[in-house]
């Protein structure tokens, strides 16, 4: 029995020799329409289409691939608001792509762009068998005069089906660009060219809707792979440990860190000033650390590192954006890391590069 049969996947397309691409369908703007006309791109959401209807909009898809839709939409929550739902989808994707009986070549997932990078970063760290996973979405609803979702969807499918896409980690197909999921974040709230890597550059682009890469596959130095099984053994299952994000500014109130801990947070990410500064509140931070809270400090700047301290008491995020740092810390806590291990996780490679080694014994 193949993974497709075991998971009950129904393949669209009549040519069984074509690549099999799994469509993890979570909705998003790409599946949303507006009752306010073809110019509206801010007040949409009253109309919707299914994954199968998106596929039917472009018959060229099934001339190049076989597609099976796995629906992850719910009436009472979404992958933009629910860690448990995202983790269950990640477990499903890992099973479908990485099990010994897998007959699937790659996957795409549709997603609302507000949290596309969060789901993608999680998939990137947990699904690690070399098969491509590609994020697709849209900045304009399907009723808009210049809907971008059809092109992004087609490009994403062709990328996931490409043998050259293997062993590159998760990727984003957006606005005819191929982006590395590990570094990518949403930097514009409405423009179709919304996503950009905050460290490194694009992986490639699409010509004639086919992927063209600039370089051979490589892995970000700061990337770590986590085990789905190990993370799923944590008490937060089926979700992830609670980690909150705080934003630092002048007269930052350290009591916010204690409040987050009192409200059940296992960890806190602080978007610090500059390269990871915290203007005030150190006494409360020290108190929270002594009570077992794990803390990672990034930068509120859109690019650049949060660099290590000479003698750390909490972790600095390096080049990771605060959004990605939250996911990394959730996985670290779920995997049993303590604060010193988390410091090494986030800082180890940068410390080696700048000649500032550290260990808890020094």
UniProtKB/TrEMBL annotation:
It catalyses: L-asparagine + H2O = L-aspartate + NH4(+). Its EC number is 3.5.1.1. Residues 20-209 form the L-asparaginase N-terminal domain. The keyword Transmembrane helix does not apply. GO terms for biological process: L-asparagine catabolic process. SUPFAM superfamilies: Glutaminase/Asparaginase. Keywords: Hydrolase. The keyword NAD does not apply. It comes from the Eukaryota. The active site is at residue 29. Residues 242-346 form the Asparaginase/glutaminase C-terminal domain. InterPro entries: AsnASE_II, Asp/glu_Ase-like_sf, Asparaginase/glutaminase-like, Asparaginase/glutaminase_AS1, Asparaginase_C, L-asparaginase_C, L-asparaginase_N, L-asparaginase_N_sf. Belongs to the asparaginase 1 family. This is asparaginase. The lineage of its organism: Eukaryota, Fungi, Dikarya, Ascomycota, Pezizomycotina.
């Amino acid at each position: 029995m193949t993974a497709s049969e075991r998971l009950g996947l129904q393949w669209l397309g009549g040519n069984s020799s074509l690549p099999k691409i799994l469509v993890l369908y979570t909705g998003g703007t790409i599946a949303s329409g507006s009752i306010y006309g073809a110019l509206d791109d801010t007040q949409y959401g009253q109309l919707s289409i299914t994954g199968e209807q998106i596929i039917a909009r472009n018959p060229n898809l099934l001339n190049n691939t076989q597609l099976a839709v796995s629906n992850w939409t719910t009436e009472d929550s979404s992958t933009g608001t629910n860690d448990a739902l995202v983790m269950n989808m990640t477990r499903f994707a890992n099973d479908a792509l990485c099990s010994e009986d897998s007959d699937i070549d790659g996957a795409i997932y549709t997603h609302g762009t507000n949290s596309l990078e969060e789901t993608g970063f999680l998939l990137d760290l947990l699904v690690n068998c070399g098969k491509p996973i590609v994020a697709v979405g849209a900045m304009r609803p399907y009723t808009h005069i210049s809907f971008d979702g059809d092109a992004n969807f087609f490009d994403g499918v062709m990328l996931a089906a490409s043998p050259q896409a293997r062993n590159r980690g998760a990727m984003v197909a957006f606005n005819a660009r191929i982006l590395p999921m590990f570094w990518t974040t949403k930097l514009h709230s409405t423009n179709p060219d919304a996503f950009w890597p905050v460290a490194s550059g694009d992986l490639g682009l699409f010509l004639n809707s086919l992927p063209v890469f600039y370089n051979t596959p490589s892995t970000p130095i700061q990337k770590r792979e986590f085990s789905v099984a190990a993370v799923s053994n944590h008490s937060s299952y089926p979700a992830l440990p609670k980690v909150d994000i705080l934003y630092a500014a002048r007269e930052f109130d350290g009591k916010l860190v204690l409040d987050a801990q009192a409200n059940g947070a296992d960890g806190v990410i602080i978007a610090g000033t500059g390269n990871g500064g915290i203007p005030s509140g150190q006494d409360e931070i020290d108190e929270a650390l002594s009570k077992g809270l794990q803390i990672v400090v990034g930068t509120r700047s859109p690019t650049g590192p949060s660099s290590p301290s000479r003698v750390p008491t909490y972790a600095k995020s390096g080049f990771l954006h605060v959004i990605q740092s939250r996911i990394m810390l959730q996985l670290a806590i779920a995997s049993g890391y303590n604060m010193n291990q988390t410091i090494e996780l986030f800082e180890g490679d940068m410390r080696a590069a700048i000649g500032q080694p550290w260990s808890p014994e020094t």
